[in-house]
Design a protein that fits this description.
two-stranded antiparallel sheet, about 65% helix, mainly alpha, elongated, 2 strands
Length: about 130
């Protein structure tokens, strides 16, 4: 059972984002965190969002609604809160992608000289609309 809490590594950074820092009672093992990172192309924020969604699913399945004496748990509310955190991580990752210019927007394919002229004219029209509009 490996537990890496070194914030110089991606696993340690992901643990910090997940508030999974208690070595005696970890939420995830290192190999599970590596899977989340692998599924999300080593994007820490997207891996954290996925991990929070997994936690939400576990909470909804395990806790449900339980009341015992003065103690009450509500797995659905806990799961909703965890999903909200996951949405925040996804939104932050989307913003980072958009601001870095890593998103695909639009591409035009030119297959012949006529298409090249048409693309050039379209580009000129787009720039004129953008300048005067």
């Amino acid at each position: 059972m490996a537990f890496t809490n070194d914030t110089a590594t991606d696993i340690g950074k992901l643990r910090l984002l997940l508030v999974d820092v208690d070595a005696s009672n970890p939420i995830f093992q290192d190999n599970e965190l590596e899977v989340f990172l692998g599924l999300k192309s080593n994007n820490l924020q997207r891996a954290a969002a996925l991990a929070y969604r997994v936690m939400a699913g576990n909470q909804a399945l395990v806790l449900k609604v339980i009341q015992l004496l003065q103690l009450q748990t509500d797995g659905a509310k806990t799961a909703d809160a965890l999903r909200a955190v996951a949405k925040d991580f996804d939104a932050s990752a989307d913003f980072d992608d958009a601001s870095s210019g890593n998103l695909f927007d639009w591409a035009e394919m030119v297959l012949n000289p006529f298409g090249e002229r048409e693309r050039l004219l379209n580009e000129i029209e787009r720039n004129q609309v953008g300048i005067g509009g």
